[in-house]
Design goal:
Blueprint lengths: L3 E8 L2 H20 L3 E5 L4 H7 L5 H8 L3 E6 L14 H12 L2 E10 L18 E8 L7 E8 L5 E6 L4 H16 L4 E6 L5 H17 L4 E6 H10 L6 E4 L1 H14 L7 E9 L5 E7 L16 H13 L4 H17 L16 H11 L1
Parallel strand pairs: 1-2, 1-3, 3-12, 5-10, 8-9, 8-10
Antiparallel strand pairs: 4-5, 4-11, 6-7, 11-12
Helix pairs in contact: 1-9, 1-11, 5-6, 7-8, 9-10, 10-11
Bound molecules: nicotinamide-adenine-dinucleotide (NAD).
C-alpha cells in the first residue's frame, strides 16, 4: 500500500484540540492496519493570518497541492471578527481552497444514533431509531457564483441588486454521479431536490438528473422533490430519505437544517470532493467537521472530537479507497458513544462526561 499523504490544517480555537485527537486515532489505525501515513501540519484561518498575514498562506496551499487529501479543522472566531468580510478566516481560507481544488460535492452524513435522540429537537417518537441519511450539496455552481452579480442604481435613485443562478448539464451530471455512488453503498434511494415549478435551472436540473439516472443508474430508485417540501419533510420524517442531493443554495440551507435535527455539531462530519483525482486515482477531497471553532468551549479540553475523527474516516474512504478501515473507525465511535456510554458534555444528557482526550482514548481502546 502506498503512503497516505495528506495535509493537516487544524485552524483555530477547538480546531487544534480535536485535530490532535483525530491524528492519534489515525496513527493508531495506521499501525494496526499496516498503513503508512505521511502528514504535515500547516496554519490556516486565524492562525494563518496571525503567523503569515493570510488566512490561506501560500506555503499551506503548496502543501495541499502536494497532498492526496486535506484534513481540515475549523477556522475563525472573535479574535478576527473585526476584519473586513473578505479577509475573514472562513471566507479567505475555505473559498480559495474550494476554488483551488474544484471541490464541487459536499457530502454530509446526517447520522444520529438511537441512543442520542434526545440531542435532536425533533420528538423522539418521530425518530425512534435515530437518523441515518446523507445530504449532498453542489458546492461550486448556482447563485453564489453565477454572473452577473451586481448592485446598480436605477434612474429613479432606487438601488437594485442581481444574483444569477446558473447550471450546466455537466455540473448537474457530476453531482448526480456522486449521489448515485453514495446511494449504491447505502439504501439505493436518491431524492433530487429542486424548484422546477419556478426556476429554469431547476427544470434543467430535473431533466438532466432523470436522463442521467435512466442511462447510468436505472437500478437505483430516483425521486424528485421541491425544496420547500424537502425542508418540511426533513423536519417531519427525515428517515424517508436515504440520499438527498441538491444545488448549492438549497443544499446550504437543507444541510444546516439536517445538522440541527441530528443533534450535536460535535458528531457531524463532512467531505468535499474535488473534480481532480489524486495519486490513488480517487477524488481529492477536503474533510472537516460540520461545526465551527466553538470559541465558547475552546481551551478547556472538553470539545467533542468525534466529528473530526469521523471526518478522518471519510478521508480514508473517499480519497484513499479504504472503505473497510473507515467503517471500523465509524463502528468504534458508535460503540463508544452508544454501548459504552462515553460522552462529552455536548451529548451527555446528565451522564458523567469525559474530555476531548478521554473520548479519543475510548475510541482507540474500542479499535
Ligand atoms: P460553532 O459550530 O463553532 O458552535 C455552535 C455551538 O456548537 C457552540 O455552542 C459550540 O460549543 C458547539 N460545538 C461546535 N462544535 C462542537 C464540538 N466539537 N464539541 C462540542 N460542542 C461543539 O458555531 P459558531 O459559534 O456560530 O461559530 C464560531 C466560529 O466558527 C465563527 O467564527 C464561525 O465563523 C466559525 N465557523 C467556521 C466553520 C468552518 O471552519 N468550516 C464553520 C462554521 C463556523
Amino acid at each position: 500500500m502506498p503512503t497516505l499523504k495528506f495535509a493537516v490544517l487544524p485552524g483555530d480555537y477547538i480546531g487544534p484540540e480535536v485535530m490532535t485527537e483525530a491524528l492519534r486515532v489515525l496513527d493508531h489505525v495506521a499501525a494496526r492496519e499496516k498503513l503508512t501515513l505521511s502528514y504535515q501540519v500547516a496554519d490556516v484561518g486565524g492562525a494563518g493570518i496571525d503567523r503569515h498575514g493570510k488566512a490561506l498562506p501560500d506555503s499551506t496551499l503548496a502543501l495541499c497541492r502536494e497532498s492526496d487529501a486535506i484534513l481540515f479543522g475549523s477556522v475563525g472566531g472573535p479574535k478576527w471578527e473585526k476584519l473586513p468580510p473578505k479577509e475573514q478566516p472562513e471566507r479567505a481560507a475555505l473559498l480559495p481552497l474550494r476554488k483551488a481544488f474544484n471541490l464541487f460535492a459536499n457530502i454530509r452524513p446526517g447520522l444520529l444514533y438511537k441512543d442520542l435522540v434526545d440531542a435532536s429537537p425533533l420528538k423522539a417518537e418521530r425518530i425512534p431509531d435515530g437518523i441515518d441519511i446523507v445530504c449532498i450539496r453542489e458546492l461550486t455552481g448556482g447563485i453564489y457564483f453565477g454572473q452577473p452579480k451586481t448592485t446598480t442604481t436605477l434612474d429613479n435613485g432606487e438601488q437594485q441588486a442581481v444574483d444569477t443562478m446558473v447550471y450546466k448539464t455537466s455540473e448537474i451530471e457530476r453531482i448526480a454521479e456522486v449521489a448515485a455512488v453514495t446511494a449504491r453503498a447505502r439504501g439505493r434511494r436518491v431524492c433530487s431536490v429542486d424548484k422546477a415549478n419556478v426556476l429554469e435551472t431547476s427544470v434543467l436540473w430535473r431533466k438532466t438528473v432523470t436522463a442521467y439516472f435512466a442511462a447510468k443508474h436505472p437500478d437505483l430508485e430516483l425521486t424528485h422533490m421541491y425544496v420547500d417540501n424537502a425542508a418540511m419533510q426533513l423536519a417531519r420524517n427525515p428517515n424517508q430519505f436515504d440520499v438527498l442531493f441538491t444545488e448549492n443554495m438549497f443544499g446550504d440551507i437543507l444541510s444546516d437544517e439536517m445538522a440541527v435535527i441530528c443533534g450535536s455539531l460535535g458528531m457531524m462530519s463532512s467531505a468535499s470532493l474535488g473534480t481532480g483525482l489524486n495519486s490513488f486515482g480517487k477524488p481529492f477531497g477536503l474533510y472537516e467537521p460540520a461545526g465551527g471553532t466553538a470559541p465558547d468551549i475552546a481551551g478547556k479540553g472538553i470539545a467533542n472530537p468525534c466529528a473530526q475523527i469521523l471526518s478522518g474516516a471519510l478521508m480514508l474512504r473517499y480519497s484513499f479507497g479504504l472503505d473497510a478501515v473507515a467503517t471500523k473507525i465509524e463502528a468504534a465511535v458508535r460503540k463508544v458513544v452508544t454501548v459504552d456510554g462515553v460522552r462529552t458534555g455536548d451529548i451527555a444528557f446528565g451522564r458523567p462526561t469525559v474530555g476531548t482526550k478521554g473520548m479519543a482514548d475510548a475510541i482507540i481502546a474500542a479499535l
